[in-house]
Amino acid sequence: MADHTPPVCDYTNSDYQSSFWDSANRAYEDAAEAVALKRLLPVSGRQMLELGAGAGRNSPRYAGYQRIVLVDYSRTQLEQAQARLGSGGKYIFVAADIYKLPFVDGLFDGSTMIRALHHMADAPLALKQVRRVMQPGGVFILEYASKLNLKAIGRYLLGKQKWSPFSREPVEFAKLNFDFHPAAIRQWLKGLGFSLQRQLTVSHLRFPLFKRLIPLKLLVALDAAFSLTGDLWQLTPSVFVRSVIPGQPDGQKTTEFFQCPACSSSHQLEHESGLKCRDCGREWPLENGIYDFRIKE
After folding, report:
1. Contact assessment for residue 120 and residue 97, using Cβ atoms and an 8 Å cutoff
2. What does the H/E/C string look like for the chain?
3. Hey, where are the domains in the chain?
4. Are 293 and 94 in contact (CB under 8 A)?
5. Which of 168, 221, 249, 256 could cross-link to 184 by cystine, CB 3.0-4.6 Å?
């Protein structure tokens, strides 16, 4: 049977960082997410996996971790992140498919997926990969786009949209753009062995009128106060969930890091231009400080 390979949303050559964040009046959304991350992140850690890292907008917020691995399918996005963060040091840049993460089991004690799950046609499969590469005691912070938001509920009740925000299946409102029901997210996480600790609702005031009339600092402060109700209800377009892997880390540092995304072998030969899998023979290049583990048939 052939492998189930969901389609990938590829931001190669996209101006997403500049057009969506830098010049589109989204300082409020960015600051609100920063507050949520500060509340949910551990003070320190060893290895952080940032999935869907893009141009590295959130990467400096993981400063308490000794090593931060940025993963994105788009090499050009990672090049922007590298320009922002610098090459070498605590950052490792990896072009890879989230459905086929090129890391050994139980490697990371921290992981985030911010504004990335909404591009996953098979969200449970993506979350299964996250669970595989995390160690006992590890903290996973997931942000997802909720279909059960007040705007969607209002539009549905007024007959302005056909899909129901109350049903648990994801809705694809644009190609490879999905909204999820909070109950479905919780069910998937629990089914994979994650233990849910906390939920924060974000972007309560995501309306152009509010952005024009309310000063940014006050807008963010109000959102931060409202977000504390996140365990009671999730009616905003963006929800953050903190989960942990039950158990205690064994304290043994693995000497292996990468594994072949094609055959899952951890036997990788290092050479100047990258890695070569000793089991299946595939080569994974390292070019200008960026590892490329994308499988290209």
Report:
1. no
2. CCCCCCCCCCCCCCCHHHHHHHCCCCHHHHHHHHHHHHHHCCCCEEEEEEECCCCCCCHHHHCCEEEEEEEECCHHHHHHHHHHHCCCCCEEEEECCHHHCCECCCCEEEEEECCCHHHCCCHHHHHHHHHHHEEEEEEEEEEEEECCCHHHHHHHHCCCCCCCCCCCCCEEEECCEEEECHHHHHHHHHHCCCEEEEEEEECCCCCHHHHHHCCHHHHHHHHHHHHCCCCCCCCCCEEEEEEECCCCCCCCCCCCCECCCCCCCCCEEEECCEEEECCCCCEEEEECCEEECCCCC
3. 16-292
4. yes
5. 168
* Angle at which helices 216-227 and 27-40 cross, to 10°: 40
pTM: 0.95
Q: Could you list the pLDDT tens digit for every one of the 297 residues in the chain?
A: 345 689 999 999 999 998 999 887 899 999 999 999 999 999 999 999 999 999 999 999 999 999 999 999 999 999 999 999 998 789 999 999 999 999 999 999 999 999 999 999 999 999 999 999 999 999 999 999 999 999 999 999 999 999 999 999 999 999 999 999 999 999 999 999 999 999 999 999 999 999 999 999 999 999 999 999 999 999 999 999 999 999 987 766 667 999 999 999 999 999 889 999 999 999 999 999 999 999 986
For the structural domain made of 16-292, what CATH number should be given?
3.40.50.150
